[in-house]
Design goal:
The structure is a single chain. The chain is mainly beta and 380 residues long. The chain folds into four domains: 120 residues, Thrombin, subunit H (Beta Barrel); 92 residues, Phage tail protein beta-alpha-beta fold (3-Layer(bab) Sandwich); 71 residues, no CATH class; 58 residues, no CATH class. It has seven helices and 22 strands.
Amino acid sequence: MPMRCGALNLGVNLTLMLGGHVPRPAPDFIVEAIKNIEVTHKDDGPSGFQITFHVGRSGPGDLLDYRLVSSPLIRQFNRVILVVRFTLAPEVLMDGMITNIQLNPDETPGESTLTITGEDVSVMMDLTEESRSYPAQPDFTKVTQIIARYIGEYGLVPPTMPASPEPMNARSPLEQIDQQPANLTDRAYLTSLAQMYGYVFYITAGPVPGVNRVHWGPPERSSILQPALSLNMGPFSNVESIHFRYDGLAPQRVRYTERGESGMVESRSSSRNLPLARDIAEARRSTQLTGSSCRAHAQAQGVVDRSFDGAVTATGELNGVRYNRLLQPRKLVALRGAGDTYSGAYYVKEVTHRIGSGEYKQAFTLQREGTGSTIPAAPP
């Protein structure tokens, strides 16, 4: 059931779907009770959501219990899909599972609330710790085997093969018997495998409700630039606040030991995409990768790559209605109006959507390897 989010002049439509593995549009009494919604997407972990409803007793059906509390649609591990539409095609904001329900009664009329909290569908990979052996299998093969166990039930689209050959290399079982540790869930194991190469693992809802795309690989820094975040541009501004931080201690060199020989990784991987900054930060700090393994060099390179990514960070808040679309995390966006040092292209690390009565805000975190713009102009 489409719901007008806040005032009619906002021009934002929200569709809430609830239920089992195939959720349906929520009935009117649930949609009309929505107080606010918060959805957070990160590039290095699961996405989360929280929906708060007004609850009260307003009729005979509420005498025994609050209608929302007793509804079978609001139960732990029911599925929640949120679809947002501006003036363009609908976009899936969240596809996840309810994991926590909180009732907050209040003596003040109209102030009692029910809050449901949950994570994207990858939470279903995080319920059971189980050890499995993968003899002589490349890491990417392990990834696809784990993902295959969840494809049908949650509409997962498997990840594409990474460009780097490292995750595709099989190792001799005489050298190392690869095994998923007994204390790791499937989600935790997929994350640990990704971190060895400086990769990220996450699930993105869409492009249509009920479908979820899996990403296991390097951050998606080669995407087309999203429409610009604009500040200090009068009526064209859509950024309400922003703060920049340049961390000189973030980039680092990493020493490692592999097969008895020592080495050092001092710069970003040449297989990664072109840098987003004109003046790359310099690595002044050296660290030591603990332990020794047959993949120590790849692990060290991953640590170095991630350290450079966070040299410059921009955090702020966007007027979602003026931006008139969803700011997509894990992709690139242009920033203009901040001067030559901090304007230009950025990687979107995190976005939190806050939807309430009469407002829609998008808080964001952007990152890149240094200062100075590498693009001649930002797209409008």
